Every structure is written in structure tokens, then in C-alpha cells.
């Protein structure tokens, strides 16, 4: 049977492995794998009589497709945790996830890992993409987060309990946690996600629990990751052999040294904090929340910089799926943030966004690098991301997406659309008090808003709590609900 050939000529190749770009190079793809790369590659290398698709990339950059190791396809661009967990049926959530997968791929993200989500929708979406039923990035998926009553995903009061549609499942004994791991593996997950404390100011799982669960996941042939913001849980996770860490916002030197020594990758996921702090005012995010995000991001920068200096491996992750991080829009901004807050060079940031994410896809050494023998998930970029990393944030600059060696054709009208989850019932984002109506207070003053009146607001300048948008949404009042 004849092979399928693709030849991309005259490109500046950024290989994703951190090597300097090579100008005037060509890449030859045979079926789904890269056959050869370099200035010596020509059309004559294709066997006589076989068809070849040619792309002239003169003046453009060819690089691996990006890999987002923290992308939640079931979140539905929600504005509150209740919208994620409650208001949309499992069937409709599944259809919306399938629809939005094409938006992620169109942005140049050819691989994602979903570290938790509703039901086993991620597993089904993974299979549909793999079988060519749904257009989207290749992916790996966890089931619901495993948490404790002191962890991230025990959002609701005990009187409400844990809804079936919640992204997390809560267990407070090791036996029940083990049982959950076994059931998730039975249902086809690629990885297990633990969710430790929301703010990182204490360790929710014991060292023993982490070790037992990580060992069991590995015994069953699966990976494990963890939401860990503070030094205690980062250290415990590294010692337990958890495969990669999400966040690591506040780390002491011992935690950083452990990550470096064990080679445990860090997925900082700075985008949610930055989007809330920088742009949240444009969509009604409350001022206390936005200011808290900014302060936390500044504190995070210290840990990220020291981790980079110590040689910790970084990978791109965005927490895409919230209203502040919609699908297919902001993924590449994380690379800019890694440069700004961790001190990565542009080549290091591109490596974090490509080859370093291969582990999270279960394809280490097989994807994320432009080199012979690698899977041909590639993008052609109209611009130079080494000189300006922000070019990757502009959809119009992602000229061509190549997946498994084939050029992807998109319905541009569909990928420009949004299809969010059902909205929560909102009445206002402030209280219509007597004083507001009769001029005794300024309703625009955050001190007089509903989110600041009677609701605990954590001051990250003085508190050890590493508050982020996800944890803030545990307080229903701080979710900025805007009625459609």
C-alpha cells in the first residue's frame, strides 16, 4: 500500500528540544511519522510514483504542536463552580466537550491531558478523537479528582454533600481512596488526579496515603498527578513518586530540591491567575478576587524562578475551561507567563509547551520534537515565536495544523463559536441596599459590593494561603455571575 507523504519546505525549524532554530530547512513526513529533517531534504526523497502534499513555509516557523497538560474539557467555560458541577446534563456536557475540542486543536494545541473532570466524559472524548469521530487534540484523561473533606473539591456544605456531577469525589479513608482508584482504572482513565488543600497552607493527604495511592496507580499501569500548591504537599508528592505536580505556587528550597533531584515535572498553570488579575475587570470579576490573584502570582514568581534556577522541568498547563480561560484562546499565553515569572527563555518556554508535555500524553520520546521517527503533530506559524513568543497566541498566525502527519481542515465558523454550559441563576453582582439607592455609599466601591460585604477575603500579602480562582469559587458569593 502506498505511503502518505507530506513535505514542508523552506521553514525555520524550531525543534521543541531546546536547540537553536534551523533556517531554510525542510521536513518530510511519511504516514504519521517524521522521515527526515534538514536543509538536505528534497522532494526527490519521495519514492517515484507516490503522491506528496507540499507546503511552502518560506518565511515561517515549523514547530511541534503545543501540549497543554492541564486542560479541562468538561468545564464548559463556566462562571461558577455550580455551573461546572450541577446545571448541565451529562449528555449535554459530553456533546459540548466534543464541540469545544476542535477549538483547542485549531489554536495549535495538538495534545492535551485532562487532569480531572465530570464523570468519565474525558475517557469517552479521548476515544472519539482517537477513532476520528471527533476533531480534537490527542489526549489523556483522569476521572473525577480524588479529594478529602479538607481538599480542593469538597466545594459544598455537608448538608448538600457531593453531587454526582461534581468534578471531585471525596473520601476520608484510605480504603475508600484505593477503591476509587481501582474503579477509575476499570473505567479507562490514563491517570489519577489527587486534589490536596485549596490554598496550599496545609497538607490534606497524609504521606502514607499519597505513597499507597501512587504505588497502586503505577502497579495498575497508570500515572498520577496532584493539585499541590504549598511546600508540604509538594514534598510529600515528590517523595511518594507522583509523576508530575500541578501548581507548586509556594515552595521552599527543600521542595524545589526534591523536584530537581527526582526529575518530577512541574506544571505551574499560571494562566488562570494572570487572566483574572489582568483582564478580569473586563468581564465583571470582583475586585478583591482580581487583586488576590495578582498578589498570588507575584508570590508564585519567586518559587518559579528558584525552581527554574535549580533545573526543575516545566510543562505548559492552563486550566482552560473556565470563563476566564475559554477553550482555544489563551493556551499559548502560559508560555509568555513562564518567561515572565519563571525566567525561561523563549526556546525553554517552547520546550515546556511541546516535548516536556509528552510524558503527560504517555508518549515520552515519541512526540513533541521535530526529528526523524517522531509523531508528526506539527504547526506552521506565520511569525517567529523565538523572537516574540506572543505570536503563538494569535490564531491567525497558526496557519497550518498537522496531526498524525495529515493537514487538519477546520470549519472556521464553528471553531469561532462558543457553547458554554447552562448558566447559573444570577440576579446581580451587588446588593441593592437602602444606602446604595439613596446615595450614602458608592456602589462602584469594592468595599460596598456583595463580594466584600460579609465574605472572607484572603489577603495574600499577609496570609500564607495561596488562593487561586478555583479555590475562590468555593465561596459562592465570590463567583462573578453575569446574567445573559
Describe the structure.
The structure is a single chain. The protein has helices at 81-85, 90-106, 121-130, 174-186, 207-219, 231-240, 253-262, 271-279, 287-309, 333-342, 346-352, 412-415, 434-437, 469-472, and strands at residues 5-13, 22-30, 33-38, 52-56, 61-64, 66-68, 109-114, 138-141, 145-147, 168-170, 191-195, 223-228, 244-247, 266-267, 378-381, 398-403, 406-407. It is of the alpha/beta class. It has a domain at 66-364: Metal-dependent hydrolases (TIM Barrel). The strands form three sheets. Strands 1, 2, 3, 4, 5, 15, 16 and 17 form an eight-stranded mixed beta sheet that branches. The chain has a six-stranded parallel beta sheet with strand order 10-9-11-12-13-14. The relative contact order is 0.16.
Can you summarize this structure?
With 484 residues, the chain is α/β, with parallel strands linked by helices.
List the keywords.
globular, TIM Barrel, eight-stranded mixed sheet, disordered C terminus, 17% strand, alpha/beta, 29% helix, 484 residues
- Bin the strand percentage: 15-25%
CATH topology of one domain: TIM Barrel
Overall radius of gyration: 23 Å
The CATH superfamily of one domain is identified as Metal-dependent hydrolases
Amino acid at each position: 500500500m502506498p505511503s502518505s507523504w507530506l513535505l514542508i519546505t523552506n521553514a525555520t525549524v524550531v525543534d521543541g528540544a531546546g536547540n537553536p532554530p534551523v533556517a531554510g530547512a525542510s521536513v518530510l513526513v511519511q504516514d504519521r511519522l517524521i522521515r527526515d529533517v534538514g536543509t538536505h531534504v528534497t522532494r526527490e526523497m519521495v519514492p517515484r510514483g507516490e503522491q506528496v502534499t507540499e507546503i511552502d513555509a518560506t518565511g515561517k516557523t515549523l514547530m511541534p504542536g503545543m501540549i497543554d497538560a492541564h486542560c479541562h474539557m468538561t468545564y464548559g467555560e463556566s462562571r461558577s463552580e455550580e455551573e461546572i458541577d450541577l446545571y448541565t446534563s451529562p449528555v449535554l456536557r459530553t456533546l459540548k466537550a466534543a464541540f469545544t475540542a476542535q477549538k483547542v486543536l485549531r489554536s495549535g494545541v495538538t495534545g492535551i491531558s485532562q487532569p480531572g473532570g465530570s464523570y468519565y466524559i474525558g475517557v469517552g472524548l479521548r476515544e472519539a478523537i482517537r477513532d476520528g469521530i471527533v476533531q480534537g487534540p490527542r489526549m489523556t484523561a483522569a476521572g473525577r479528582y480524588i479529594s478529602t473533606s479538607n481538599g480542593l473539591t469538597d466545594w459544598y456544605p455537608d448538608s448538600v454533600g457531593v453531587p454526582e456531577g461534581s468534578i471531585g469525589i471525596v473520601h476520608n479513608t484510605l480504603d475508600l481512596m484505593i477503591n476509587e482508584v481501582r474503579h477509575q482504572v476499570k473505567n479507562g482513565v490514563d491517570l489519577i488526579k489527587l486534589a490536596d488543600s485549596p490554598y496550599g497552607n496545609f497538607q490534606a493527604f497524609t504521606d502514607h496515603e499519597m505513597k499507597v495511592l501512587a504505588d497502586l496507580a503505577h502497579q495498575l499501569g497508570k500515572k498520577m498527578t496532584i493539585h499541590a500548591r504549598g511546600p508540604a504537599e509538594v514534598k510529600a508528592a515528590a517523595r511518594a513518586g507522583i509523576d508530575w505536580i500541578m501548581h507548586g505556587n509556594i515552595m521552599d528550597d527543600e521542595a524545589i530540591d526534591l523536584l530537581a533531584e527526582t526529575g518530577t515535572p512541574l506544571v505551574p498553570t499560571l494562566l488562570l491567575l494572570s487572566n483574572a488579575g489582568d483582564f478580569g475587570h473586563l468581564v465583571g470579576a470582583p475586585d478583591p478576587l482580581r487583586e488576590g490573584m495578582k498578589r498570588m502570582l507575584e508570590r508564585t514568581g519567586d518559587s518559579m524562578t528558584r525552581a527554574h534556577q535549580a533545573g526543575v522541568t516545566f510543562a505548559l498547563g492552563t486550566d482552560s475551561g473556565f470563563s476566564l480561560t475559554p477553550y482555544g484562546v489563551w493556551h499559548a499565553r502560559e508560555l509568555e507567563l513562564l518567561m515572565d515569572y519563571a525566567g525561561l527563555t523563549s526556546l525553554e518556554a517552547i520546550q515546556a509547551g511541546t516535548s516536556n508535555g509528552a510524558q503527560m500524553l504517555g508518549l515520552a520520546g515519541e512526540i513533541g520534537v521535530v526529528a526523524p521517527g517522531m509523531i508528526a503533530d506539527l504547526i506552521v506559524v506565520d511569525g517567529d515565536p523565538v523572537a516574540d513568543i506572543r505570536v503563538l497566541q494569535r490564531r491567525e498566525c497558526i496557519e497550518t495544523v498537522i496531526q498524525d502527519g495529515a493537514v487538519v481542515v477546520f470549519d472556521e465558523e464553528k471553531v469561532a463559536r462558543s457553547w458554554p454550559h447552562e448558566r447559573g441563576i444570577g440576579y446581580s453582582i451587588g446588593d441593592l441596599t437602602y444606602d446604595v439607592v439613596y446615595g450614602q455609599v458608592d456602589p462602584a466601591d469594592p468595599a460596598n459590593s456583595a463580594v466584600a460585604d460579609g465574605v472572607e477575603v484572603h489577603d495574600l500579602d499577609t496570609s500564607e494561603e495561596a488562593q487561586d480562582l478555583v479555590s475562590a469559587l468555593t465561596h459562592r458569593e465570590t463567583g462573578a455571575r453575569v446574567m445573559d
